[in-house]
Amino acid sequence: MVSETRAMGKIDRKQSKGEVQMGNQESSGDFVAGFFIGALVGAALALIFAPASGEEVRSQLREKSIELKGRVEELGTEASKKAEELRAKGQTILQEQRTRFQEAIEEGKRAAARKKEELLAQLEAARSSEGSVELTETKG
């Protein structure tokens, strides 16, 4: 069980093998993105409902929409970078696990070969001892 302490209190999370746990950076990045988008939408609504001339409101809306477009592009670029980082990390982990699995298979094959040789030696020893018993019985 993994325990994390945060400013708002203690949060316990159960984590099994292979389970992906969201990091603090990802959740804080989502929060910041949501905060900025909410702020821009709020600003746009404030401009619409504020007493100002139509031309002034349209000008401010244009400026805010340009800001919003830029921020959305930034967030898209950030998301793409994070996705690429996660993909690369996943590929690395996958390759490491594949290598470990192949090594385990090879070790299993070597152990099976050793056991086979051991059993064949025991069988040969048993056959040899049976032959000597038969020779002894025939002579007597």
Task: Outline the structure in words.
The protein is rod-shaped, with a radius of gyration of 35 Å. Helix 1 packs antiparallel against helix 2. A hairpin with a 2-residue loop joins strand 1 (about 1-5) and strand 2. It has helices at about 25-50, 55-140, and strands at about 1-5, 10-15. It has one domain. The protein is about 80% helix and about 5% strand. Strands 1-2 form a two-stranded antiparallel sheet. The chain contains 2 helices and 2 strands, in the order E-E-H-H.
Count structural domains.
1
Structural class: mainly alpha
Strand content: 5-15%
Report the end-to-end length measured between terminal Cα atoms.
73 Å
Mean pLDDT: 78
Major β-sheet strand ordering:
1-2
- Can you write the helix and strand succession as a string? EEHH
Count helical runs.
2
Number of strands: 2
Helix content: over 70%
Q: Which consecutive residue ranges, at least 5 long each, have pLDDT under 50?
A: 1-22
- Give the C-alpha Rg: 35 Å
Major sheet details: 2 strands, antiparallel
Tell me the overall shape. Answer: rod-shaped
In short:
The protein is mainly alpha-helical and 140 residues long. Strands 1-2 form a two-stranded antiparallel ribbon. Helix 1 packs antiparallel against helix 2.
